[in-house]
Amino acid sequence: MYKKFLSLTKNLTVSLEKGLNFLTTQENNPLYFHGALPLYTFWFLIFSGIMLWMYYIPTLDRAWTSVNYITSLPVLLKDASGQLLLKNGNPVVSAISPATGIPYGAVVRGIHRWGAAAMMITTLLHMLRVYFTDRHRAWRWLPWVSGVLLLMFMLFVGITGYLLVWDARAYSLVVSTQRWLEAVPLVGQGLSTFFIGGDAIRDFTLTRFFFFHIGGAVFIFWLIWMHFIRLHEPVVTPSRAVNFLTLGFILVAAGVYPAVNVTNDLIAQYPVLAGDKGFIASDAPAQIGHLVDVIRYDAWYLFPYYLIEKLGVNWAWIILGGATILLLVAPFYPKDRRDNIAEVIDAKCTGCTFCSLDCPFEAITMQERAPGSKFKLIAVVFAPRCSECGICVGACPFQAIELPNTHSKTIEADVLALLKTGVQ
Amino acid sequence: MSEIQSSVPSEKKKRVIVGFVCERSIPIIEMLDAHKALTDDPETKIIILPCSGMVKPTQMELALANGADATFVCGCAMNDCHYRTGNIMIRERLEGQRNPKLRKSTDKRKVGMFFFTMKDKRPFLDALAQFKASTENL
Fold first, then answer.
1. Chain B residues within an 8 Å CB radius of A421
2. For A41, which of A113, A147, A290, A296 is 20 to 30 Å away at the CA?
């Protein structure tokens, strides 16, 4: 039943991709680079994040101001005298005044914001695609499980990013997170204290969030290493056409919708900005004890808070925890019969390493033979990692590695038999 | 009369093509008859393998040496091998970029390679017909 479901999802996925192949060709189908795209978008976040880091100040009274300083330039056009233009050529803010912001800072923050959305979208696409095509089970368990952990850490890093701006929404999110953590039996209070770095929100709280954000991003790199460790030559970059398509999407999104803080204060100062209120990237500065009436939810990163608000902390734990457990056990069910695992014929193995170099799942290692042997090395198959694909068999010029149920001799006998019978 | 008979072309000689097909690429099981030939093209005999990357160039040479008029391998769509790299491996082997390679003496015009999804039955048959036509006078 479950396998039939996976077969159906694979059919649907391949049908969809076939349509896209018609438009893009196999070589440039973005869905064939679903694994490389999240990593590619991650680089945008790293570089834009480093640029934002240069101006960010993680203290309660300076965090919002520093983010606002980076992004308060609402338009990027300049007139002949170097004045920035907004609408109808009206000069709004001086580009060189340090009081008004960093030129293109809103675009850099926009790249960070849209890059984060792109990373989550491509990650979910990658996950669904892998699941729907049944490429998550058995020998692929480590990439899948590390992928689930990557998804969780992406959420964690994304959420802490929303806290760093320290606006009214950030404060409400912190209060929700504390409620959510405190619902954990026995250790809940401790988790909550750890989360804000003490028994109350202080400057240390933002320093801690900053550590969570940057430290989490570093940990993502470690998880990516875990994700790749069982994959031979993982695809880490999409094709050039897909690269430019993604680059274009993020840059155009950041250029057209930069992360601008068109706050009420700014509108009061420059009424011409009133029509741009939709560009608000942050709410007003946070005030301890003042929760926002309506939280502006980001669909990709803040959905856990939507669950907390609508269903309460306990149901949020049950839904998010249950979903995580289901994802973590997915690669272990159903179990396939594994009776065609590659076997090395010791007497024929010359230690040439071809099979080891070509194995897509790092299932073959080269080990030293006993002293005095004719050849120095011998291939050794680590059975739990073997996918039974036979690529190692195709790589071996000496018939020294075989799939027991699909032996090369049998294939060659079949070829000769087909030729003997001729055309019927 | 005998002159007239000699000017009538004799029945087209039947050829044999041997294909090595990945079981996860085109829907090969439903395309075969009882003699392991394609129902749409009885001249094409098929060996089914778990992955196109399992094909040894020597097996394709064996087919050519024993009477096959041409031989080909068919794997998953490029960049979408179920086992990640099988189609890339066989392509590089047949193109001479990865070991083991085809012998230099092998007529590479008689060696084809196709990469299609399980939904590409018709495009595969079209590509096969084109390949067969290209090898007809070799």
1. 35
2. A296
Min Cα–Cα distance to chain B from A231, Å:
9
Q: What is the CATH number of domain A343-421?
A: 3.30.70.20
Q: Does pLDDT of A175 surpass 90?
A: yes
Q: Which residues of A touch B120 (CB under 8 A)?
A: 18
State how far residue A50 is from chain B, nearest Cα, in angstroms.
Answer: 33
* Domain positions in chain A: 2-332, 343-421
Is the predicted pLDDT of residue A196 greater than 50, yes or no?
yes
All residues of chain B having their beta carbon less than 8 Å from the beta carbon of residue A390 are 49-51, 53-54
Express each pLDDT in A282-339 by its tens digit.
Answer: 888 899 999 988 888 999 999 999 999 999 999 999 999 999 999 999 999 888 889 9
Query: CB distance B62–A412 less than 8 Å?
Result: yes
Q: Give the whole-angstrom CA distance, residue A206 versus residue A377.
A: 55
**Contact across the interface for A360 and B83, Cβ inside 8 Å:** yes
Q: Is residue B65 part of a domain?
A: yes
- Put simply, the answer to whether A29 touches B120 (Cβ < 8 Å) is no
A16: contact with B, CB 8 A cutoff: no
d(CA A328, CA A127): 12
Question: Is there a contact between A26 and B120 if contact means CB atoms under 8 Å apart?
Answer: no
Q: What ipTM was predicted for this assembly?
A: 0.91
Supply the range of the domain harboring residue B47. 15-135
Is B78 within 8 Å of A26 when comparing Cβ atoms? yes
In a 3-state reduction of DSSP, which class is residue A367? strand
Q: Count structural domains, chain B.
A: 1
Please report the pLDDT score of residue A284 as a whole number: 80
- Percent of chain B residues topping a pLDDT of 70: 91
Helix (H) or strand (E) holding A379: strand A377-381
- Rounded distance, CA A176 to CA A164, Å? 15
pLDDT at A79: 46
CA distance A254 to A260: 10
Q: How confident is the model at residue A97, as a pLDDT? A: 37
Nearest alpha carbon to residue A92 among A269, A283, A258:
A269
Residue B67 forms part of a structural domain: yes
Fold of the CATH domain A2-332: Cytochrome Bc1 Complex; Chain C (1.20.810)
Yes or no, beta carbons of A390 and B15 under 8 Å apart: no
Whether B83 contacts A389, CB under 8 Å: yes
